[in-house]
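[job 0412] stage=complex_fold ligand=heme C status=START
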Amino acid sequence: MFPTVLLLFFLAAQSNPAPAPPIDWAKAKRLFDANCAGCHGPEGAGGKGPALAVPILPHARTNEQLAGVIVGGIPGTLMPASWHLGNEGVMLAVAYVRKLGAGATPPKVEGDAAKGQALFAGKGGCTNCHSIGYGPDLSSIGSRRTAASLRESITDPAAEVLEDYLPVRIVTREGKMVQGMRVNEDTFTIQIMEPSGRFSSFRKDSLSKLDKRVGESPMPSYKAVFSENELRDVVAYLSSLRGEQ
Ligand code: HEC
Ligand code: HEC
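[job 0412] stage=complex_fold status=DONE, emitting structure tokens
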């Protein structure tokens, strides 16, 4: 039996110039148990370090990033550099962590995505901004963010504001006030998009006030708008947005 398998690998290697190296899963598991499980838990369930048997690893979205985290560790945290594993060991660790992630039950979505979609377009008025570009594209947000961080974006948008979205308020010399989001700025002018989608450009020397509200988000908090159940439903809907694949 064993020689037959070897022969098959040999033949496969002959017909395919670059076969994926077969992974020795028993060896990969031993390596993980010896080097990683002490912190990340058996089967990556989590412990002193975060669970690795999850669909999304924020520090390691690609295999290159994952290998980088393993080789270099995460400075300033308990996560150690494991360069001593060597190339083969790092490759095995990457494969094993991905296997744990693939076997993980997809994130438990607590809410009802269909109801969330209705809230997104209706009561929440989210489309008012997000479908006209007054806010980022959300079509694959579910594959980039965990449910917990999506929830925070909705209840507390100012906690982490994306750099490109700076709320501004200006007053012209004639006393006209415009509030919106900075789209562009140079030494002499500033372009603003209002929540209605309207763009305006102003010469800075025509303004009596230019107030950049750093640390605020153009997006309002929905903490007091949604009930707990509605919030779950909207998060479930966002989690289901995974782009086309
Ligand atoms: C001494 C404890 C410890 C050991 C040993 C350890 N880790 Fe970690 N690891 C951590 C901690 C703590 C973090 C979270 C660091 C942070 O705060 O961002 C982490 C983070 C990670 C992350 C990033 C997770 C994410 O959410 O993106 C990966 C991937 C990872 N470890 C893989 C491994 C692998 C693979 C091994 C074995 C080769 C290993 N770790 C060994 C403690 C450890
Ligand atoms: C007034 C316009 C506006 C409305 C209404 C609005 N948003 Fe936003 N949203 C933004 C802007 C601008 C940002 C980017 C700034 C930031 O990160 O806070 C953003 C960011 C986000 C993010 C983070 C995106 C990322 O890539 O990290 C999520 C998620 C989000 N909005 C969801 C929602 C949901 C759900 C609703 C409705 C319940 C909503 N938004 C309503 C303007 C809006």
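Confidence is low (pLDDT under 50) at residues 1-17.
[job 0412] exit 0
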